[in-house]
């Protein structure tokens, strides 16, 4: 019974991929005849034929909600994924963006040159570093907003825990608002241009990518999240899904009343995410992905059962969003095995797949000489970008940020001069 169901789903998925495939070759053929004609027809095809994928996936979701253990592998062919309409949503503050930005541009954005970038981040003294996104292939929208305190309702205070987040419930609400706001930007862009995306990739400004985001991460029947770092729920440091599934997964703030209504309490970010997908019958799929979350936070070392391991940035493995920093590892080989066995699988446990994992002693601030460690791991080009951000002056910053603004379809942010002044003048006064 289960196997049959699985089989059916797999066939549907194949079909959905073939629909796209057919469409792609048709577009290609028509392009040969006339480039002009192609522009018109691509438009028509996008609007009229793109619905099957999201339709199929939403049907599958409702039919599969009763046996969530089934796992059908259904990633689409890479050339097909790259030819579809894709939105990449990047959220968060730019604190260390001089280190993470170039890796995101190279491994996420340039790897999917057809994708539209949506940036949603707070206005602060680091926001000027977003100018590094100027080399992104396509920029749909940039929203940099002045963060305000979000009023906390009794319901929210009950559903959410204040424990794990550095800024308590308020920190969680800010984060959920950032994520859901990105969905708002995407929807607005879609209705302005009269089409819908097939895929939405949601990722973080503080993600450091060591290898390309490859197309095996695009899977139809479910929502893809990184493995490990579950913290009592599901790792929410990245998510990939089709349009319908992503709409559900990104609605983190507006789903809270639903979670409250079914009696959830005291959730952290990860357990709220898990509860939200379960409540809306979206199946999560875990995958190991080549990025880590660059963090300045301090953590106990060595981590205990419910501790947080901090990986050295230059291990080269697929860290799936685990915390990392540029450090000379204090723990490798047998030492890592020992720490790793102790970690609780449902908490800070870190998925390992390849590379030589090293752990940092992250009890204090980043060590002296971390720049050298970073440059060694990231390579000369990334090192040059890092130095460029460090050395940029007001005029250079404005010039770069104006370039970003010009390239963006929508600029919902203060003037570049203001963002640069906040980071380069006001912050040192
Ligand atoms: C927490 O709040 C402080 C000040 O209110 C702010 O500087 C910091 O960025 C916040 N941290 C997070 C993770 O939101
Ligand atoms: C948007 O697309 C629909 C069909 O999908 C069409 O009926 C409508 O006229 C289009 N609107 C604009 C403004 O192009
Ligand atoms: C970790 O680093 C701190 C200083 O930042 C030091 O006091 C401590 O002994 C170190 N722990 C281990 C296990 O090396």
UniProtKB/TrEMBL annotation:
The keyword Nucleus does not apply. InterPro entries: DUF7796 (IPR056698). The keyword Iron-sulfur does not apply. Residues 82-424 form the DUF7796 domain. It holds the Pfam family DUF7796. The chain crosses the membrane at residues 27-50. Keywords: Membrane, Transmembrane, Transmembrane helix. This is DUF7796 domain-containing protein. It comes from Vanilla planifolia (Vanilla).
